[in-house]
Amino acid sequence: MKGGTVGLMDIVIDIAGLVKRFGHATALDSLDLQVERGEVHGFLGPNGSGKSTTIRVLLGLLRADEGSVTLFGQDPWRDAAELHRRLAYVPGDVNLWPNLSGGEVIDLLGRLRGGLDEKRRALLIDRFELDPTKKARTYSKGNRQKVALVAALASDVELLILDEPTSGLDPLMEAVFTDCVDEFKDDGRSVLLSSHILAEVERLCDRVSIIRAGRTVESGTLADLRHLTRTSVSAELSQAPTGLDGLTGVHDLAVEGMRATFEVDTVHLGAALQALGRFGVRTLTSQPPTLEELFLRHYGEEVAS
Amino acid sequence: MTGAMTVLRFHLRRDRMMLFWWIAGNVLLYYSQAVSTDGLYPTQADLDKAAAGMADNAAFIAMAGPARALDTLGGQVAWQASAFGAIVAALMSMFLVGRHTRAEEETGRDELIRAAAIGRHAPLAATALLVVIADALMGALISVSLISYGLPVGGSLALGLAAGLTGLVFGGVALVAAQLVESTRAAYGITGAVLGVAYALRAVGDVGNGALSWLSPIGWGQYLRPYADEQWWPLVLPVVAVVLLGCGAVALFDRRDIGSGVWPARPGPARGSLGSASALAWRLQRGSVIGWGVGLLLGGIAYGSIGDDVADLVGDSQFSKDVFASAGGSIVDSFYATAAVMLSLIGAGFAISSVQRLRGEESSGFAETLLATALPRWRWAVAHLVVTVAGTLVVVLAAGLGMGLGFAMVTGDGSAVLRLTGATAPYAVPVLLLATIAWLAYGIRSRWAAVGWLGLGFCFVVMMFGEVLQLPGWLMDVSPFRHLAQTPAEDFRVWPLLVLLVVTAAAAAAGMVAMRRRDVVSA
């Protein structure tokens, strides 16, 4: 980071104006995505919004129709195999060869990626409580996911691409997963995490990109995004408040005697608190917007229609 | 048992095409034996001559069964069709049972059904009923078709009953196997092994004093003596076996949990030795290479064991001359040239299904997982294609080796092993061209891989019926098999082979270019 701008070498994933069509259907419609080195980047969007398609383009499995896509500064379509040495991928729907054991799959994928860290492999199998001797056909969805996660986390790579990696894990294993991603990131490495579980994204991600219908609608740090949304405020005052409804950015105001609750655009929070101060604040609770609210703000219209 | 009928109707709806092809195929197997025997031996004198040549051929008896009343049309049909027809019926029953029991439990679909308001035994009962219906229909249609051809009613009934009941016995074996093990594949393995043992026991028994044949369900059917003074009491044996197997399956079912088997699944290795795409491709395809190789070796031995009695066997009719003499040369050599092409066409089944494996790996999402590693796309494809090419050579050479071995065993002419293997080897090239067509189509679009089967079907029609249907020469010449020297009937020519090789290599390269340019699709 020189001179306040992000250096070229510090951008791991750079997608601009990506378009991907399947026949007449447009899956990605001018999508943008930037992931910087050392960050965990949340990739959010409803089902069918194009998250998996974007990831497949990034992996060089699908060919971009328009736009520019670079991974570590290189073209993922042309240099797929070379780039894949530096990343590990966990698909959302892990399918494994039914007659191979979990251990065999982990070792195969590790070798194809260019080697596994033996110590980490053993540790991860232990932490995820995975039985590597079972045949893949007998694994549940969660256990298949663990196989892919162990194979990915035990390889020595700079980038993890995870497509809804915890959809089959129980809460305990989810916690293990969260710890593993934290440790991975602490080494200065990057993660692209597509997810539906907002709590997980809030907990793990430095920045998020929200996409809808193949287009990026919002991107930034969680703090940035929160700034664009509303904070809910509930206050008990020493005298009945008046004139609060005249404040800019205040919504859903309810005054009941000496009690006021409202939501305020986060940019106008300061002014609203000053106004409250005039009536003598006894107690005050304020809640920052959750990611759910962020999410609903972008998809609420869709739900309504 | 509540709901069994609903489940049964559902099975019939899902399986109607599959049932049609199995049943129609097997009925056609019996019926075509009647037609072709009639064509080969149009007079009683021809039949007598053929019977004299066959009745003491131990290899033939081991292949097909005891030689009875071979001087009658019915006797010939029963001899040629009863063992293979019984195997077809057994395989149909096995696949029906596996598909509706273990496969459903493995995928979890079974839970959906069981969670509905149906009895605990309803899915089992529905599967059993389905197999009974399928085998009854198959047996009945075999009998009806043979009676309609003009064969005696008693013998036709016995032949149909033999096929249907043998099928049912193996349906019972499959139902028991499905309770014992956890995977569909293992259940097929057990049933297939029992079927193999049954076939071998009958082969050894029929060549010897017949005692061992009584231990084989296939032998039970043949002991009905169709068209040779039928005896009916052996019908008791398969009926008792079916009842015992059915009760055994229910008893085992009651002792196990849904989703698991009576025998617990064996664990696999905790550490893997697979280290490359090639190792994985071989691991995934080796069973198929070995299976097809052994199958074609046995098929080759079957043809080879006819020895140099071909002339007797073929008879003097115009039809048989049309079939076997098209290649020119001596009748024995042209017979083996035809046999070599025939076996190679069967071997093309391996080659094309091996290419289709790529499509299967891609659509099931396995390819996506692999291609997200440092494995380049072309190397992934080449790993499978190398197995296709090597496997095709193994399979075609196994057919030639089998013919040579069979021929040498019967005639004592040891040089035949090399001669017939060498004569069959060139046909691997047109087989590879058929596989390459499948590969090229797959390269352009994943789901076009099935085009390879059309190519095989075309070559088959040209070979079997080209002359009879009087297809135009240019159309028949599209089949690559037509351009090779018909070894061993003709001398080997190197040029046609080289041209085919160049065409194959060019098509393979085009397939690779196309495949590297398109999207990888997963389900």
TrEMBL record, chain B:
rRNA processing keyword on record: no
Signal peptide: none
Membrane-spanning ranges: 77-97, 124-151, 157-178, 185-205, 232-253, 289-306, 335-355, 385-407, 427-444, 451-474, 494-515
Keywords noted in UniProt: Membrane, Transmembrane, Transmembrane helix
Entry keyword NADP: no
Name of this chain's protein: ABC transporter permease
